[in-house]
């Protein structure tokens, strides 16, 4: 086990191990997504208030969860890179930013499309929506800052600090529906006691949530591998890899 | 449930299917982007290595 983590610290081994994991993660993700979509779109009954429009939930809610989850991963990886100068943590942090941004975008857009028939408006400036929009700007800020700084190690340090400061937004998003009066509905899954949602809706939702997590794991490793190659472009093993390709 | 009912989504077809279409685009883009980046990087590095060999 220790040897395993030690090897992960070496870019060459990370590149190899990640390459071996990606197809399995992708396969598991695809399988769960098919199950979740079938259960959610076909098996689950229509909602008694929202009819079939609630089926947007099966992508909206997992996307929104991922937007928060990836941000936390990015900030923690950034902090690890900052404190222990672990290059791989820097790579994971910076590879997470565009993926997190795309999930935040997806959560906002699907929420907007769901809001139109249910609330009668594409957008309202309420606490949940506004704080999620700020999250998108934080991701974009991290990406812009990283590409603006020439030296990649300095860039990684600067973006880590920005990401860590931005963490204050995470609890604001999570509790926004409780702290302020908003149009956005309250939590129905994480509520203490029994979740106030039909099991036939809850199960596909959770399956989709796991599928989205696996999706993130797959694409973050794909991005991290490219980032590692870029950083190690002068290393002997990368030269050999290029020669045989 | 008939196939027609499925696509009709109880009258919310436009909203539901446009959401899923956008989700599909976002997911596919996330997969394709690193593949293209990787290919570009390999081409770039291969060119550099050829140049270095010619010079040495």
List the helices and strands and how they pair.
The complex is a heterodimer of chains A (245) and B (56).
Chain A: H1 2-8, H2 11-43, H3 57-84, H4 87-119, H5 127-148, H6 152-166, H7 169-179, H8 199-231, H9 236-244
Helix pairs in contact in A: 2-8, 3-4, 3-6, 3-8, 4-5, 4-6, 4-8, 5-6, 5-7
Chain B: H1 3-8, H2 13-55
Descriptive terms for the model:
heterodimer; A: 245 residues; mainly alpha; globular; B: 56 residues; rod-shaped
Compressed to H and E, one letter per element, the order of chain B equals HH
What structural class do helix, strand and pairing data of chain B support? Answer: mainly alpha
Beta-strand segment tally of chain B: 0
Gap from first CA to last CA of chain B: 71 Å
Question: Low-confidence stretches of chain B at least 5 residues in length (pLDDT < 50)?
Answer: none
Question: Helix amount of chain B, in percent?
Answer: over 70%
Average pLDDT of chain A = 90
The interface involving the most residues is between: A-B, 38 and 28 residues
Number of domains of chain B: 1
What order do the helices and strands of chain A follow?
HHHHHHHHH
The stretches of 5 or more residues of chain A where confidence is low (pLDDT under 50) are: none
Number of strands of chain A: 0
Q: What radius of gyration of chain A results from the CA coordinates?
A: 20 Å
Count of helices of chain A? 9
How can the largest sheet of chain B be summarized? none
Q: Quote the distance from N terminus to C terminus of chain A.
A: 32 Å
Shape of chain A: globular
User: Proportion of β residues of chain A?
Assistant: under 5%
Oligomer: heterodimer
Number of domains of chain A: 1
């Amino acid at each position: 086990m220790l040897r395993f983590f030690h090897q992960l610290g070496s870019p060459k081994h990370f590149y190899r191990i990640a390459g071996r994991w990606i197809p399995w993660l992708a396969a598991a993700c695809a399988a769960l997504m098919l199950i979740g979509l079938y259960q959610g779109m076909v098996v689950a009954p229509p909602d008694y208030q929202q009819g079939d429009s609630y089926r947007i939930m099966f992508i909206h809610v997992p996307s929104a969860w991922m937007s928060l989850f990836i941000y936390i991963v990015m900030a923690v990886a950034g902090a690890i890179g900052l404190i222990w100068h672990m290059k791989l943590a820097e790579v994971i942090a910076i590879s997470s930013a565009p993926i997190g941004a795309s999930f935040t975008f997806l959560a906002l857009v699907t929420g907007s499309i769901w809001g139109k028939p249910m609330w009668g408006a594409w957008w309202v400036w309420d606490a949940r929506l506004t704080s999620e929009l700020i999250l998108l700007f934080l991701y974009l800020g991290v990406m812009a800052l990283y590409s603006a700084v020439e030296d990649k190690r300095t860039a990684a340090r600067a973006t880590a600090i920005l990401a860590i400061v931005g963490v204050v937004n995470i609890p604001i998003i999570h509790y926004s529906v409780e702290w302020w009066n908003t149009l956005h509905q309250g939590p129905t899954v994480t509520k203490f006691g029994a979740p106030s949602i039909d099991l036939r809706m809850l199960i596909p939702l959770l399956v989709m949530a796991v599928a989205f997590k696996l999706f993130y794991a797959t694409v973050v490793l794909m991005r991290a591998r490219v980032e590692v190659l870029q950083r190690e472009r002068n290393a002997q093993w990368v030269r050999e890899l290029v020669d045989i390709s | 449930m008939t196939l027609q009912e499925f696509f009709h989504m109880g009258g919310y077809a436009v909203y539901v299917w446009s959401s899923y279409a956008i989700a599909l685009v976002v997911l596919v883009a996330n997969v394709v982007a690193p593949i293209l980046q990787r290919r570009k990087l390999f081409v770039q590095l291969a060119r550099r290595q050829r140049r270095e060999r010619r010079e040495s």
